[in-house]
């Protein structure tokens, strides 16, 4: 975190110290030599493009006018926006170079980089959301309205669509490509769309938490529709890597509630954490169904590190008219490792590493209430 602040350009020169950037960040050094499609990136490899994008950002009047804290965060985003390209770039049989999926993989990679750097959770998730969606202003208006709304609203809840437009502007100015003027026009239109949808500079507002939850679960729903809240019970769904403190959090905050625990089911059945988990998940879902049928509040205790895994829980809860309280627990890497290795049933390092590679922090689109909790203390 200190490195981003130290290297962020400042007036009056607004100079990007690229030598300092490459020395400070190993993931920037990995960009050197990674090829790009010459049609859209005639400037050269990913490192050259990233440097040009950083310099373009530093020259933007709208970026210079921001408070310094905002400038530092956007500077981090521009340095990180293509960080996953070394892992996604391929050259086809026809010689064409592609980097499909680098935005989504960048989200995962950026989360880990900033977590290991000690970034505050909200700051980290703001940058990760910008990286995940950094190409949206280029092509967003070509997508169906319902899809574009969901993306723009999600960005507004996690970060800022104005920040996204600034990042996209720096990205396109950091390229040598024939369609740059068209792309810049698309970015301006995306700004106008977000302003009209009331999500450009502030989070999109919904009539209620239930209306927000149902909007992101129901294709074609009017975002202004005040959905009737027919929920019968609240289910607390935990998300966190091994050692994040899930059992301790339950003991401190939900001691009165029954718990559906995947760890407990594994131990009962003798299933290793690194083995296939299908039977364990099925048993947990059946135990959850039994409580949901009765309209009984409970805690669902699992790692739930990916959205796909969480959707299995939240979808089942929603089907039984449950209210989803999603608690995302985490701790710094050293704390997490110490807790995991110190407990009786430690999760193998290889299994933790696999979880880290697909770790997606829960976001406000996934539940009625979503909270991030740092358990380091």
Short overview:
The chain has helices at residues 2-7, 18-24, 26-29, 46-59, 61-64, 68-80, 85-88, 102-116, 121-132, 136-139, 145-158, 161-173, 180-196, 209-217, 246-253, 262-269, 278-293, 307-319, 333-342, 349-357; strands at 90-91, 97-98, 233-239, 259-261, 298-301, 322-330, 369-374. The chain is of the alpha/beta class and 377 residues long.
Give your account of this protein's structure:
The structure is a single chain. The longest helix has 17 residues, at 180-196. With 377 residues, the chain is of the alpha/beta class. The protein has 20 helices and seven strands. It has two domains: 2-196, Hypothetical protein af1432 (Orthogonal Bundle); 233-374, P-loop containing nucleotide triphosphate hydrolases (Rossmann fold). It is globular. The mean pLDDT is 95. The strands form two sheets. Strands 4-5-3-6-7 form a five-stranded parallel β-sheet, sandwiched between helices.
Entry keywords:
377 residues; Hypothetical protein af1432; 2 domains; 7 strands; alpha/beta; two-stranded antiparallel sheet; five-stranded parallel sheet; Rossmann fold; 9% strand
């Amino acid at each position: 975190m200190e490195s981003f602040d130290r290297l962020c350009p400042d007036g009056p020169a607004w100079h990007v110290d690229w030598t300092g950037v490459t020395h400070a960040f190993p993931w920037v050094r990995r960009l050197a030599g990674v090829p790009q499609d010459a049609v859209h990136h005639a400037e050269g490899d990913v490192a050259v493009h990233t440097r040009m994008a950083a310099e373009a950002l530093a020259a933007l009047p709208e970026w210079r006018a921001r408070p310094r804290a905002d400038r530092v965060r956007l500077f981090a985003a521009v340095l990180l926006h293509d960080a996953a390209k070394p892992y996604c770039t391929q050259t086809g049989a026809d010689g064409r170079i592609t980097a499909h999926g680098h935005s989504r993989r960048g989200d995962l990679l950026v989360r880990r980089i900033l977590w290991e750097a000690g970034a505050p959770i909200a700051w980290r998730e703001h940058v990760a959301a910008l990286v995940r969606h950094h190409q949206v202003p280029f092509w967003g208006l070509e997508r169906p309205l319902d899809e574009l709304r969901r993306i723009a609203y999600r960005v507004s809840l996690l970060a800022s669509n104005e920040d996204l437009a600034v990042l996209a502007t720096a990205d396109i100015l950091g390229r040598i490509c024939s369609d740059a003027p068209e792309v810049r026009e698309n970015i301006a239109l995306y700004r106008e769309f977000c302003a009209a949808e009331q999500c450009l500079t502030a989070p999109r507002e919904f009539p209620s938490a239930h209306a927000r939850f149902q909007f992101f679960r129901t294709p074609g729903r009017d975002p202004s529709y005040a959905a009737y809240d027919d929920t019968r019970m609240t289910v607390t769904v935990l998300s966190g890597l091994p050692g994040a403190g899930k059992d301790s959090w339950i003991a401190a905050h939900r001691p009165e509630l029954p718990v559906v625990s995947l760890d407990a089911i594994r131990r009962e059945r003798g299933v290793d954490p690194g083995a296939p988990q299908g039977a364990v998940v099925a048993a947990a879902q059946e135990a959850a169904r039994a409580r949901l049928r009765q309209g009984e509040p409970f805690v669902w205790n699992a790692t739930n590190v990916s959205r796909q895994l969480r959707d299995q829980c939240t979808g089942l809860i929603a089907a039984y008219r449950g209210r989803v309280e999603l608690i995302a627990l985490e701790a710094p890497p050293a704390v997490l490792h110490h807790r995991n290795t110190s407990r009786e049933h430690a999760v193998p390092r290889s299994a933790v590493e696999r979880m880290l590679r697909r770790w997606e922090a829960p976001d406000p689109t996934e539940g009625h209430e979503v909270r991030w909790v740092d358990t380091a203390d």
